[in-house]
Write a structure and sequence with these properties.
alpha+beta, 12 helices
Length: 329
């Protein structure tokens, strides 16, 4: 009887131990799943793709870049002793108002110039900073070797990359098409400015912008237009409906409200609208005459676009909208 009691206690203890180990395993496994799930829905992930990767592309080659990859930003700003608060403060401070004296990436400034001021909400910048700090971000194939060759040390790129396919709404798809086209146009335009100057960039816009937009429309199987209430090219003149949407976006941007796409669905098609907002780089050709726009550029504008209305802008102003039509998926 005594032996039976001892066996019973031992058996019960063994079961408790097994259950405890199982619970610990399940708890650890659940936490890992939650971590991946958290990354899938982290708003910084979408923001870094839609706002940062346009210029800081993780796929562009080393020689054809127009800005350093975001992993270079993380490598310069974050080391083993950097806290999230320290990184976020520096990141937000620079992106909110980029200046040469705030920069710590001196090689990037020499090569690409100071980053143009962007129309970003501070809370969005903080979300991007949080994502960069907490998670592993995409990086070019060449970067690791380049970094170690230049710096002679390793860099931190922590966290996991979510690989599961994301469900995309019509707004997500439209934004992907708009920003994908903007990326191609922007990289070519800024590359031309950096290498050949503003006058050559004007010729690029005049000769190649339409063909590049059309090629992206073919790639996405969509109709893609850029229209404005103050067009440079008459072909980009907005309709009354488009002007109404432009005015709505002007009010949103001037009041520093969150920008959301306008999406309409009918007859199996999606009509997508999204604003085109100026930054400091735009003012070289769209700013105030004889201030941001140099006399030589004004002369070329008058030659290429006799009916030009697209001047006099400041930063963070709505210059027009994307109008994209595609099949509902």
């Amino acid at each position: 009887m005594k032996k039976l009691a001892i066996l019973t206690v031992l058996s019960f203890s063994f079961l408790l131990s097994c259950n405890s180990k199982k619970e610990k395993y399940e708890s650890t496994s659940t936490k890992k799943q939650e971590k991946v799930a958290e990354q899938k829905v982290h708003p910084g992930k979408k923001l870094i793709k839609t706002q940062c990767f346009l210029c800081h592309s993780p796929t562009a080659s080393h020689d054809d870049r127009i800005a350093p990859p975001m992993i270079a930003v993380k490598a310069h700003y974050v080391d083993a002793n950097t806290t999230k608060e320290e990184f976020t403060k520096k990141f937000v401070d620079f992106v909110t108002k980029p200046t040469k004296d705030k920069a710590i990436m001196f090689g990037a400034v020499r090569r690409f110039g100071v980053m143009p001021k962007q129309n970003y909400k501070e809370e969005d910048i903080k979300l991007i900073a949080e994502y960069i700090y907490d998670y592993q971000i995409e990086e070019p194939d060449w970067f690791k070797e380049h970094w170690q060759e230049m710096q002679g040390k390793s860099y931190i790129n922590t966290g996991k990359v979510a690989t599961a396919k994301e469900t995309k709404s019509a707004a997500d798809i439209g934004l992907e098409y708009a920003l994908g086209t903007k990326k191609v146009l922007g990289q070519n335009l800024m590359g031309t400015i950096q290498k050949k100057g503003t006058l050559e960039a004007l010729k690029f816009c005049n000769e190649k912008a339409y063909s590049l937009t059309d090629s992206m429309a073919t790639t996405f199987n969509a109709a893609i237009k850029r229209v404005s209430d103050k067009p440079r090219n008459p072909k980009n003149t907005a309709t009354q409906k488009e002007i109404k949407i432009i005015n709505q976006y002007k009010e949103i941007v001037s009041n520093n409200k969150t920008i959301e796409p306008v999406v309409e669905e009918a007859n199996g098609k999606v009509q997508f609208y999204y604003p085109i907002v100026t930054n400091s780089m735009c003012l070289q050709c769209h700013g105030k005459p004889n201030e941001q726009i140099q006399p030589t550029v004004l002369k070329e504008l008058a030659h290429l676009y006799p009916n030009d209305n697209a001047k006099g802008y400041d930063v963070d102003q709505v210059r027009g909208i994307w109008n994209i039509t595609f099949k509902k998926q």
